[in-house]
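Why does residue order matter? Because the sequence determines the fold. Keep that principle in mind as you read this record.
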Amino acid sequence: MPTHTAHAGGEFLIGGDLRVNRLGFGAMRITGKGIWGQPADRSEAIRVLRRAVELGINFIDTADSYGPNVSEEIIAEALFPYGTGVVIATKAGLERPGPDNWVVNGKPAHLKSACEGSLRRLRVDHIDLYQLHRIDPNVPADDQIGAMKDLQAQGKIRHIGLSEVSVPQIAHARSIVPIVSVQNRYSLSDRGAEDVLKYCEREEIVFIPWFPLAAGQLAGKESPVSRVAERLQSTPSQVALAWLLARSRVILPIPGTSSVRHLEENVAAASLKMDEKSRKELS
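Structure:
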């Protein structure tokens, strides 16, 4: 049986110079419970990352807050020196006082310090895609975007992205600096960011849906996703990912896992073709 690879999902050119396959890997789950501390099986986390690259995944999304720091450290241990074309995207703007606790911090000094930490942990001299994890409501947006612009001007980051933002917030940020990616929660069962997705399509901005496998909420035995999965001889998770890939040419899903077996199952979704009947059933 042939091995499925991420190449089957097509490509997207981020920011005009980062060519990536349109199925990435989200590295939040390679940390401990509550996205805190070391994973239960660090060697398996390393195998997952190396297998992801073997299967054609060349876009890996992480953040300094995952662990905190743990995800970035494991990525470097597993993949450094990074192969040609492998893009490691990371984020700043959230602090971690404990397991499952997330505190927004968009102060420019924090963002700049966080960038220095990510550069060190990832063992790189610049970050290809640096994303503001959240816009801090207690800090002027201009100051937060301005800090990202400063980092870009200093050559520490190549491109800038945003996460969990509205269309007006994206437009405002773009009045200060080019924005090449937006990462909002979006899935087959959660389409609240539809207006943001449409904006990204018009503006050729890559849209990175986080929590892309929320389809579990729809995966009851008689649910549409389960019926489609049975007809296509696949799993509900594969249907959820294939639906995202078919939904828009700018979507780049980043399903995460701490298991090689689950990783291979996710990657196989890139080869799953959604027929018109299935699309209508899931619309």
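The chain has a mean pLDDT of 94.
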